[in-house]
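--- STAGE predict ---
source: upstream dedup step, 1 unique chain passed
mode: sequence only
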Amino acid sequence: MTDDFAHRLPLNQIRDGERIDLSADEGERKLIADRLDLRALDRLEAHATLDRKGEMVRARGRVKAILCQSCVVTNEPVDAHVDEAFDIHFLPEPKVDSPEEEVELVESDCDVVFHDGSAIDLGSAIADTLALGLDPYPRSAGAEAVLKEAGVLSEAEAGPFAALAKLKRSESD
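--- STAGE serialize ---
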């Protein structure tokens, strides 16, 4: 986790059912945009309801953002919106017998964030949730034309069904 949107909440101050609303200020948005390689992050807001059972905290809510990415083909700006639900479990850092011992996570652990036993960092978890909600290959309106001009086949032209159609055409010739 990083400190670009740090909002540490001490465990002993978290009340079960508490609602938290976070909004990134201009400086925080700039740091997050730099880390996520965004052209701009104009808005980042989130709300969460917290449930606490001992040292386990569950945060459920939504993250919303207005941002601009770069097209992976043309490098032109691509405006985007993120509106993602999240369900994050904050658990104490697992005890490891030796520094070389690895902690194995299963699929159900994917929305688990470990904490130090004294506080959770909801802001950093939300910034990471934003990162997961981004389009990994944003494309501008002109991207397909640029790819076609460069000789790059579309998915339909290069996929397995296109290959089968090409074989069928060659057999009938």
